[in-house]
Specification:
By secondary structure, the protein is mainly beta. It has one helix and six strands; from the N terminus they run E-E-E-H-E-E-E.
Length: 89
Amino acid sequence: MLRIDCPLCGVRDEVEFRYRGDARLRRPAADAGTAAFAEYVYERANPRGWHLEWWYHAAGCRQYLQVWRHTVTHAIHAVGTADDHLPPP
């Protein structure tokens, strides 16, 4: 089980959180076309290593957090609020 150190609530079990996706993806412009949106929604890389993710603290402060997590070991490098600029590991 992951233990996520919420900057507002402290260390909590992952069951309090909901995974919300890749924090580095950017939505295409409104006039980008169907192919760009299909790629944005359906085509994902499955990287090994460090990954910046969005997590929602559903059973706590109800804030979106950024988490640097290793996809193989599940080690967590850093956790911050949505406005923070977290340094990569």
